[in-house]
Write a structure and sequence with these properties.
The complex is a heterodimer.
Chain A lengths: L3 E4 L2 E4 L5 E7 L5 E7 L5 E8 L2 E5 L6 E7 L2 E6 L8 E8 L9 E2 L3 E5 L1
Parallel strand pairs in A: 2-11
Antiparallel strand pairs in A: 1-3, 3-8, 4-5, 4-9, 5-6, 7-8, 9-10, 9-11
Chain B lengths: L2 E3 L4 E5 L4 E8 L5 E7 L6 E7 L4 E4 L2 E6 L4 E6 L8 E7 L9 E2 L3 E6 L1
Parallel strand pairs in B: 2-11
Antiparallel strand pairs in B: 1-3, 3-8, 4-5, 4-9, 6-7, 7-8, 9-10, 9-11
The chains are: A mainly beta, B mainly beta.
Chain lengths: ~110, ~110
């Protein structure tokens, strides 16, 4: 009965490959997010979608392309993976596009680039 | 630019004691502040939200204070237990723009039995 689920949990791949991470939420929330948590544990926003529309794109290389087929799903595709992309990527959702709403996070996808 | 500091990277305390974690911010006046808990290998879990007009908020053994003059929030866990061991993150709304939340780096709390 997971609220925010993302797959895969672990992703190990070679530099230069293209990979996707999927996220689904069953909370009925309008807004979904992608965060990156690096080795120093900082959690940084990458993208925010409200009802399938991109709201925020925070200086993320255009190798990263989010796609939201419906408001319950927000997938992240990454082209030409680089060593610096190694991190844990978290998907989250919230009831509305306002930041005073608590966010619900998935358990993360640990991406390791060889 | 706005800055959030959780000034203890790690905190070790004895079981049964009160743990106090600090979140300081500079260069803005947020209308509220949130606290999250993150366990290893898991995503952050929302714990409490406190608004600028609230001095204190409680939830079971948790207490959060918000001092807008000192630009500081304190997060207390009373009668701490080993199960409280985790990383605790504070998060604030941005000073400007559409960014949903800005997270601190977190404090890793270890409660020793």
């Amino acid at each position: 009965d997971t609220a925010v689920s993302q797959t895969p949990k672990y992703l190990v791949t070679q530099m230069g490959n293209d990979k996707s991470i999927k996220c689904e939420q069953n909370l009925g929330h309008d807004t979904m997010y992608w965060y990156k948590q690096d080795s120093k544990k900082f959690l940084k926003i990458m993208f925010s979608y409200n009802n399938k529309e991109l709201i925020i794109n925070e200086t993320v290389p255009n190798r990263f392309s989010p796609k939201s087929p419906d408001k319950a799903h927000l997938n992240l595709h990454i082209n030409s993976l680089e060593l610096g992309d190694s991190a844990v990527y978290f998907c989250a959702s919230s009831p509305a596009g306002r930041s005073n709403q608590p966010q619900h996070f998935g358990d993360g996808t640990r991406l390791s680039i060889l | 630019s706005q800055k959030i500091e959780q000034n203890s990277e790690a905190l070790n305390i004895q079981e049964g004691k009160t743990a106090t974690l600090t979140c300081n911010y500079t260069n803005y006046s947020p209308a509220y502040l949130q606290w999250y808990r993150q366990d290893p290998g898991r995503g952050p879990v929302f714990l409490l939200l406190i608004r600028e007009n609230e001095k204190e908020k409680r939830k079971e053994r948790l207490k959060v204070t918000f001092d807008t003059t000192l630009k500081q929030s304190l997060f207390h866990i009373t009668a701490s237990q080993p199960a409280d061991s985790a990383t605790y993150l504070c998060a604030l709304p941005p000073n400007s723009g559409n960014t949903p939340l800005v997270f601190g780096k977190g404090t890793r709390l270890s409660v020793i039995a």
